[in-house]
């Protein structure tokens, strides 16, 4: 199938000023030439642009500009042509139909990038980074994706993998001379290398929490009793009337999710139903959903009405929702309605009752008081996850799993050395470690993994 000439729309569906169709393969120039009589494309230089009409036999479909990229100086390393046309979906459809009639076929999802990987232009982690660049929704995710595209993670582990490969070769050599009981690989030097590998792998694994926050956003559950001001706070943070605000308790029956960007980081704000015992079946479902959202949240923002006299129910709710890895922020709300003495007392009550570490902020969403303080707390949570020592951040679940397997394999190799087990078993554990490291860059992979990765790409990428 790699010998086929493929084509696809590279720009988004819909009406626009321009659209671009990509064509790639050994016969790309001849396929396009059949519909472009203005010039002999076979005689043109690489990286040149040509004007003319794209034809379907005798009919002009559109006035186009063709960009030519000759192998190997193209994204796929194959002969490639990009056709820029007026951005009508109908014109794009007609051009694709004509290209298929001329001898190409429609590309599969991610097939252009897959060819770039197969042809050695990029490794697998860089291919995945391309998808991350396209999907980036904030500055932080863009920067991390670009670093990966430049080969960030591959550069980090390639030197370690090369050193490990040298030891594997020496161990394999020992197996060839097993009867002579010789030792080519220095076990102490190998242990030193494994210490270095473990240190690097641990650093990369620890970066995943920050990377996941960058890529997928940080889940923030806004929780509290009915009428504590949850929907008002959501509207204030988003600066729009996203949630219905009412004095009637139980107005929010379902969860409302919105994205908020703070200092280049994405936060998934989840406004939930007020937590209380209720006989209303629909509201009860909303309360259940609210608790489920907290279980999957990174940050819990609990709102307590500062005018409340008894906070025992709030404290009980907070304690029932806490877990060790949950960031807790307690907000005393509606401070515009009470005296400073009152909301200062509120903080003391929560400090004395809750042992879990938390930040306390006094806010009025209606008056927009101290809302920026809350935003700063959210932002600092993500910033604290970032390691100053590691320039590479892991954002990909597949990379994370491969790194954990590599670390586990490195531990087993060290155990094998300390217990002085047979060279055959040591070689087996070393090959395992080498294989898991190779999974990240695609030096070791299988068709099922490749199919899963590239099926998530756009058709034209």
From TrEMBL:
Broadest EC class assigned to this enzyme: hydrolase
One Gene Ontology term from the biological process aspect of the record: tRNA wobble uridine modification
Chain sites annotated for binding (6S)-5-formyl-5,6,7,8-tetrahydrofolate: 22, 82, 121, 461
Superkingdom to which the source organism belongs: Bacteria
InterPro entries reported for this sequence: G_TrmE (IPR031168), GTP-bd (IPR006073), GTP-bd_TrmE_N (IPR018948), GTPase_MnmE (IPR004520), MnmE_dom2 (IPR027368), MnmE_helical (IPR025867), P-loop_NTPase (IPR027417), Small_GTP-bd (IPR005225)
Gene3D superfamilies named in the record: P-loop containing nucleotide triphosphate hydrolases, Probable tRNA modification gtpase trme, domain 1, tRNA modification GTPase MnmE domain 2
Residues in coiled coil: 364-391
UniProt cofactor note: Binds 1 potassium ion per subunit.
Binding site for GTP: 227-232, 246-252, 271-274
Protein's UniProt name: tRNA modification GTPase MnmE
Species this chain originates from: Chryseobacterium culicis
Native organism taxonomy: Bacteria, Pseudomonadati, Bacteroidota, Flavobacteriia, Flavobacteriales
